[in-house]
Design a protein that fits this description.
Length: 172
């Protein structure tokens, strides 16, 4: 992955810059913020994240993955509940360059847990830790976020990263 996986020439390693919403079952992407319309284009995750005015939508297993490079829906609680309804949903972000990592977990239309770290410090937290957080890798970084994705949805990051995404272009 070229854009979502960020390499550094300084020898500091490799990191990620990706974010999205995962909803159990199917959703209508036209209901996402920005009045998106299906473009007919199918692309990889890198391409989606290179276009901040668009969403990428893929179905993996029984989950709909919505790549949200413009941050239009992932941490908008009202929008997530409207899209997910009573289904389970996971909003997540991991950005190694700005050191922002976190997730929000919804069940039955309610935010159960949200935790966001920036530069190693908690900057937003809602609800008590959930059982899936027990023994998760620390510190909270991309490994932690990808581990929580797998624990909560049963889908591994590789399946998300390798999926093909239908492009939905925002009209407003």
């Amino acid at each position: 992955m070229l854009q979502t996986k960020i390499g550094t020439e300084s020898g500091l390693g490799v990191g990620w810059k990706v974010e999205g919403l995962i909803v159990e079952g199917s959703v209508n992407p036209a209901d996402l913020p920005g009045c998106p319309r299906k473009s007919g284009e199918v692309v990889d995750l890198d391409t989606v994240h290179g276009r901040p005015c668009e969403y990428g939508v893929a179905v993996v297993g029984n989950w709909t993955f919505i790549a949200d490079p413009g941050f239009r829906v992932i941490f908008d609680e009202e929008a997530v509940v409207r899209i997910a309804g009573a289904s389970r949903a996971l909003a997540w972000v991991t950005n190694s360059v700005s050191t922002v990592h976190g997730f929000a977990w919804y069940r039955e239309g309610e935010l159960v847990r949200q935790i966001i770290y920036a530069e190693g410090e908690v900057v937003d937290e809602h609800g008590p830790a959930i059982p899936e957080e027990e023994d998760a890798p620390e510190p909270l970084d991309e490994d932690y976020v990808f581990e929580m994705m797998e624990r909560l949805t049963g889908i591994i990051w590789g399946a998300v990263a390798d999926a093909r995404y239908s492009v939905w272009s925002c009209t407003e």
